[in-house]
Amino acid sequence: MQLIGMLDSPYVRRVAICLKLLGIEFEHHAISVFSGFDRFKALNPVVKAPTLVLDDDQILMDSSLILEYAVGISPTGRLLLPTQGTKRLRALQLNGLALAACEKTVQIVYEQQLRPQEKQHQPWLDRIQGQLLAAYAELEKQLPQAAIPHLMGSAEVSVAVAWSFTQHMLPGQISADQHPAVAAFSANAEKHPVFLSTPLV
Fold it and tell me: Which pTM value belongs to this model?
């Protein structure tokens, strides 16, 4: 099994960390959708990261769909989400907010770094930045100020990965002082062995 994509993508890193938590062995191939476009296209014509190439050469893409599949083949039988009730709802809400934060960070990066300055549309950029701020404000309200649990799931991974990604790509735009719970949660998660073995950079 091969995971294709760069770890500076929060979606690729999210999958890599969760696969390790599930005890699933895989090879990671750090191929960029930009500089390695043709090489990536040979593996997946859609050129979408992350891509999971199965042992029979079938492919899966989209981090959430990959993780849904991965839970079903985990040799440990471990789950990434609670199965029912308020705990499941909370985990789904945290996942949704974290993935929204990743999406809006990516949109800002693309707008600022890939689009020529004269073609950037400030009202659109302001809207995306407002959405990014709203996602982290909601995470700050919903995330308990607690150390990372020993047995984390996809929600905890998603929150920590999202925060680290935004801080790396958009330094100074989202203040840690205004989001102490999220910042502390992510800092604790980054000390976990699976995070340390799957660095952002």
Answer: 0.95
Share of the chain above pLDDT 70, in %: 96
Handedness of CA 167, 182, 15, 192 (dihedral sign): positive
170 with 102: CB under 8 angstroms? no
Contacts 24+ apart (CB under 8 A), 80-84: 80/18, 80/21, 80/22, 80/153, 80/154, 81/153, 81/154, 81/155, 82/153
Decide if 185 contacts 152 (C-beta within 8 A). no
HEC profile of the chain: CEEECCCCCHHHHHHHHHHHHCCCCCEEECCCCCCCHHHHHHHCCCCCCCEEECCCCCEEECHHHHHHHHHHHCCCCCCCCCCCHHHHHHHHHHHHHHHHHHHHHHHHHHHHHCCCHHHCCHHHHHHHHHHHHHHHHHHHHHCCCCCCCCCCCHHHHHHHHHHHHHHHHCCCCCCCCCCHHHHHHHHHHCCCHHHHCCCCC
Distance from C-alpha of 10 to C-alpha of 169, rounded to nearest angstrom: 11
